Amino acid sequence: MDETLSAREEKARARAAHRLDRQREILRPLGLLVIAAVAIGAINGRPAPAAHGEGLGVAAAFAVFAVALVLRLRSRFVERSIAVQAGVIAGMGAAGVALVALQPHGATELAGGVAVWLAVARLPLLLGGAIASATTFGLGLAEAFAGDSAAAVAAGLLLCAFLALVAFFMKQARASQETTELLLAQLEDAREQQLEAAALAERGRIAGELHDVLAHSLSGAALQLEGARKLAEREQASAPVRAAIDRAGELVRDGLANARHAVGALRGEELPGVGQLESLVAAFENDTNGDVRLAIEGSPRPLAADASLALYRGAQEALTNISRYAPGAGTSVVLRYESGRTVLTVENVLAARAAEGLAGVGGGKGLAGLRERAGRVGGTLVAGPTGTGWRVQLEIPT
Questions:
Q1: Whole-model pTM?
Q2: Spelled out in words, what is the top-level CATH class assigned to the domain 274-397?
């Protein structure tokens, strides 16, 4: 089943996996000591390992046990399927039972105990319990048929039960620790989401206030200015008066658009960025019937939200000025990714006489606001005539 984890949950899972790996590294030398102990017990027991008879059975059982334990100690063994792991541990348990049956008075009971421990500690509860129970029962029968006393058989069974209980509680403790860390990570995520929701709700409230007060006021001012423009035309007011009214109307409309963008940002709407430059240029081209060329140079890379927004606003303001002061001019928009910085250049080309008329353009509030925005992200804005038109260049460190 697919499961999407947060960064905190992934870190909690990683810590748990690291702890388990460390435990395996610590227990690996102990496993080698167990093999050595069982080998010494088998060699010193009767019958001793040999190439024939019961000795051959002892040698074969020990070989199966040693190979199974070595496989189990390998670091990548846990990546095997549960069926493979269960088969190896069951083989280890069967080898332990065979060693006890062949050497009833030796020190080979340790082999069966190790199989019981691993079955409970490493396998799912029902499967591990079944293998552990079968191994314990087999050890008891082997000792009983070998003629051990009831006390010795009971002691062997109790030892296996003790090992199984210790393995079970250690497994439960490890699982509880993992669950606790995962729950703490989820709690931190929930608290963070709660704080974000509260902040979003507060921003929504502020956005509502701005919309009700500022946006409505600007809409009213735009209507009044439109009425004033029509009145000026009817009264045949002077050209400077009509131009001032038109300019005031443009400023109010720009302010209204900016207010709506601000309200959207407060409500958590996605802010525009360099990814929307293509749609911005297309809209400008469609509205003005102008010739605009957009070029992306260098290898695009993710930008910080503030930097991306500053570049977008730079292009937006530059294109707005072109539509206002130089409609129909050929325009190029170039976004260039360089080492350590991203540069946006918007340039238009006019006839020589028209270009001379742009010498005093560009000192308004729009470019000043862009300079402030660029400064907040450590960037710079340069704007001015080029002799053949006008250029706006915005540089943002990235």
A1: 0.48
A2: alpha beta
